[in-house]
Amino acid sequence: MTAAVAPFPPFHEGNIKNWFLQMEAIFTVRRITDQKTKFGHVVAVLPPAIVDEVSDFLEAVPEVEPYTRLKEAILRRMGRTEETLIRELFSNLTCDGRTPSQLLRFMKSRLGKNTMADSILKSLWLDRFPTTITQILAPMSENTPIDQLADAADRIFSQLDHQTTPVHSAEATSDHRSLEKQWKILNKKLEI
User: Record's superkingdom (predicted)?
Assistant: First the structure.
């Protein structure tokens, strides 16, 4: 029986750096180490718009490290700079169907090699949630590591996901009491 061969993923313009990470993982699994072979596989899956963007490079392929140089050229010409990724992190970022922990991992991946104080990252992350959620998380946010806070936020979101939005103020008060109760339960679980 032969092992299944992982196919090369389609080019991902949204995150070129991660696409190259996928390609390199597949190269490792397939034991592809030759620069020219890697180069050929990458060129084979590039969409026409990207080929057009690096056509000058493809017409004069360097003899030394062709794959590495092609990767650098694509990242330089088509990839978003780390500064751009960080700017995007600060603006117009929403939960967009992600759980709080998924959003946190996404934000961390956007930071790339850059570092940011956990307190700042935590603040930016919390800013993406409705006020109700941040109010529940506020008492534990100062002393709780961000990854634990994300787990707690996931549990809160999963509980709130099954509830309907209150329409009347009496229901809102009841909902508020319910949230307080859930917060106390979660806080006790975090202390254990």
Answer: Eukaryota
